Task: structure prediction
Amino acid sequence: MSWQGEPYNAEPAKCGGIGWYAFDEIPRNTVPYHTAALAHIAAGRVRSRFGWEPTLKSTE
Result:
């Protein structure tokens, strides 16, 4: 698989910008779940439960 062309912000009303950043230079205003996903990828983890609180089992 390969990429051709230049990335661009197709939804400027919804997205503040687009750019390439090193894992340790992610902008502070990045959406928290994106920041968490990138941190997990950088650490070599393939999954995360970020944002998913454990559910309580029914006692019925």
